[in-house]
UniProtKB/TrEMBL annotation:
<dbReference type="Pfam" id="PF00742">
    <property type="entry name" value="Homoserine_dh"/>
</dbReference>
<keyword id="KW-0560">Oxidoreductase</keyword>
<dbReference type="InterPro" id="IPR011147">
    <property type="entry name" value="Bifunc_Aspkin/hSer_DH"/>
</dbReference>
<protein>
    <submittedName>
        <fullName>Homoserine dehydrogenase</fullName>
    </submittedName>
</protein>
<feature type="domain" description="Homoserine dehydrogenase catalytic">
    <location>
        <begin position="16"/>
        <end position="101"/>
    </location>
</feature>
<dbReference type="InterPro" id="IPR001342">
    <property type="entry name" value="HDH_cat"/>
</dbReference>
<keyword id="KW-0521">NADP</keyword>
<dbReference type="GO" id="GO:0009090">
    <property type="term" value="P:homoserine biosynthetic process"/>
</dbReference>
<dbReference type="GO" id="GO:0004412">
    <property type="term" value="F:homoserine dehydrogenase activity"/>
</dbReference>
<dbReference type="GO" id="GO:0009067">
    <property type="term" value="P:aspartate family amino acid biosynthetic process"/>
</dbReference>
Length: 109
């Protein structure tokens, strides 16, 4: 896709694929969530849809709730978890974009 406008115009084409992904997860008793991760050591950023078992903290999120897991030298096996209500879609999207721009300038690929 060549532009943001074209992407938005064609976004509905992904609805069936997303519904199929959700249905497959539900058959396995799982929940689909949109997640992102940043690995500072490898400088790798991932964003995408993932399926989680019902017992997983991410599966239990409701509404605009957010959860962040910090894996560090001291918290490698059992991460430090920060969870709470989010600001909602629009504010969160702008905050994530702002944070990513700052992060990318700090990393200096």
């Amino acid at each position: 896709m060549s532009s943001g406008d074209e992407f938005l115009a064609r976004l509905a084409e992904l609805d069936q694929q997303m519904e199929e992904h959700k249905a497959a997860a539900e058959k396995e008793g799982k929940f689909v969530r949109f997640v992102g991760s940043i690995d500072m050591a490898s400088r790798e950023v991932k964003v995408g849809m993932e399926s989680f078992r019902k017992a997983h903290l991410i599966a239990a999120l409701q509404g605009s709730d957010n959860i962040i897991s910090f894996y560090t030298k001291r918290y490698s096996d059992n991460p430090l978890i920060v969870q709470g209500v989010g600001a909602g879609g629009d504010v969160t999207a702008m905050g994530v974009l702002s944070d990513l721009l700052k992060l990318f300038s700090d990393i200096a690929w």
